[in-house]
Amino acid sequence: MTVLDVVVWPAKVLETKASDVTVFDDAFRKFVADMHETMKASGGIGLAANQVGDLRRVLTIEIPFGDNRYEEGEVEEETREWWHNKKFTFVNPVITKKAGKMKYQEGCLSFPEIYDFVDRASEVWIEAKDEFGKTFEIHATGLMAVCLQHEIDHIDGIVFINRMSRLKNNMIRKKIMRRGQLSTPEPV
Ligand code: NI
After folding, report:
1. N or C: which end of the chain has fewer CB within 10 A?
2. What average pLDDT is seen over the chain?
């Protein structure tokens, strides 16, 4: 397996809508395995294909039990859910139903050091295919639901700062652009 390079914003591929996967062959499954490897190596709990520069509708998720640290308000003792510590691959995922509301302090591998609260549904019902092209459905709650909405946004070309207030979105954009300028080496 190969650890791929994670693209950081403002790369254009992060704000480009991805296309459905139509070919489920060994090369595709190798790519999915590389995505899992990349996600793990980067310390992420979710990864969308455009974050590694590929415009196919694929995402990987693996949420370790004990990672539920950033929920707003009173943080209850975390309960072990069926989706903890499991490797998930969602190909061509579609949200068929949403319910409830929650706020979670999200981060993103494509936005190093940026963490902020985003409004999300607390439950989602998803229809997707696995890496072999087989259709499955899941009902996700809590952090799994948040993660799915964040990653499905990615393949739609929507980055999480676009889900924040206009003011915050602009502030973060400017901050990152400034940081980019600062890190440009001085001419010699
Ligand atoms: Ni992300």
Report:
1. C
2. 92
